[in-house]
């Protein structure tokens, strides 16, 4: 850039714009827009600014970069050439419209080189990797590692820049290997009558990927087991086939089984793959003979027999069979296992059933005419085996039970009521038809009063009515009426039963009255009257006793004692172990009350002269027994009685006092404090008691000495 003014003045040039004075500073972008300015030294513009267009020419200064350093892909084994595998791509920062940014791809190496070194090829422009040869086999090579190179300058190795990446190709499994049994024949053993046992083990090999549908084996029995005794289950770990017996086998029926087994995979074989001849094998299963228990061919066995057959009757032969009859010569013995009524026995050798008691259909052990007994058959094998069999005997009914009258007690009105005609009766028979109803009811000929007073009429086949004859009156009471009832058996059986009939007066509804019920209990009119009189007398006595009690209670309240009932202390004399008074008594010399150390001065006294407050030396006697009077009529008698008891008891300390003083020890020099004579006969005036009120009136009357004395 140059201004034509530079001849006259000095010019300074500058540029502005992005890449010049604007970030990025001093960096030109492609097609930058720049503007040039011409100013003088004073900064005056001498030329108009002009736009400068600068084009940055690209140069190959960037290598191709792969998006990933490692690419993963997969392809089925056995794929045909040209099968797409995976895609890789690289980016070049240079201008992609020029050779600087044009990237081309190629495979540098393949590991392993099996079956050939160049199993794959890559599209140089797109980066798609495809197979180029046949022979991919997962069982031989399961994975390939390929190094891919990307070069710019259109792949020119002399001028272009390059970079590499790794492509890992996994060969996926297809079912191109059929399972093959390791042997053409297998063998095993199975005990008879056993189930859920593994009797043989089939081993198989399969080159496909383990534990995949292409490897998992499925076994089938295609012949040799028409009844389905065996099945084959696959071991999920080893893929082996386990031959299992699921239905019991019988040595006597089949001593060996020849099975044909075929094995296949869970997934179908790949297209074009044929099954191997080793997918089929024969399995021989030998049956082991064991001692089987005897069995009863007819179990349970049903027979029909009449009840009532005598003991020793042969009913049937209940024999068992030995499954081992062809292989073992054994003997069977019979025994009884369960016989609830103990009616049967069985012959030990031939199984003949005999009765030991009479069979009774009406027994509690018979249900719905059936009697069941269980028997045991045991062989002499080693070890011994046994089987059970049930014998069911259907007992045919015979007429061996007479009917019984129902009810046994009833009541009837003493006079024939037009609404109530009698007692409905029926009968119960333990037998069944035709040995039960209809029943025939009759009155006996003896005694003659039965037919004279009573009558029986037929209601239906099983019911009759017992009643009084018309215009017959019976005294109230209980009558025993005999009735003969017969069943319909051949020959019929009869029973003479007695029904107790209460004859009683009835109301209009036909119900016994209260008086009638008493009379019907068997008491006459005189007895009833006597009972009523006794009841009246008893009630009168109770009433009089209650009135007497109330009168006594009233007298007790009107004639009070000397003190209130709450203060009455009769028969309640208390004993207190008191030792003295309170604090005010502490100044007294209590030593005067103590007993001296020695009793010689007491013993040496002449007879009859002694201190009555001292402890007697004679053996103590019991208090006189005085009668217990709950409520004495005279308080004076009560007091005098207590006084006499105290006077007559020489051992009662202090003899004439109701207080009891404990022993105070020895050393007392004081005289006796018991100087009062309770039985004094001196005269005393008690008239002052009249002034003390009504509570002391009784004492005033007793001791006052008035006119009432």
TrEMBL record:
Gene Ontology biological process terms, A to Z: adherens junction organization; anatomical structure formation involved in morphogenesis; calcium-dependent cell-cell adhesion via plasma membrane cell adhesion molecules; cell migration; cell morphogenesis; cell-cell adhesion mediated by cadherin; cell-cell junction assembly; epithelial tube morphogenesis
Domain of life, source organism: Eukaryota
Subcellular location(s) of the protein: Cell junction, Adherens junction; Cell membrane
Domain Cadherin span(s) in chain numbering: 34-66, 67-181, 182-296, 297-405, 404-515
Short name of one Pfam family: Cadherin
Keywords from the UniProt entry: Calcium, Cell adhesion, Cell junction, Cell membrane, Glycoprotein, Membrane, Metal-binding, Repeat, Transmembrane, Transmembrane helix
Ranges that cross the membrane: 527-549
Alphabetized GO MF terms: beta-catenin binding; cadherin binding; calcium ion binding
Gene3D superfamilies xref list: Cadherins, TCF3-CBD (Catenin binding domain)
SUPFAM superfamilies: Cadherin-like
Record's bilayer topology term: Single-pass type I membrane protein
GO CC terms in record: adherens junction; catenin complex
Annotated function: Cadherins are calcium-dependent cell adhesion proteins.
Name of protein: Cadherin-4
Organism encoding this protein: Pogonophryne albipinna
Phylogenetic lineage: Eukaryota, Metazoa, Chordata, Craniata, Vertebrata
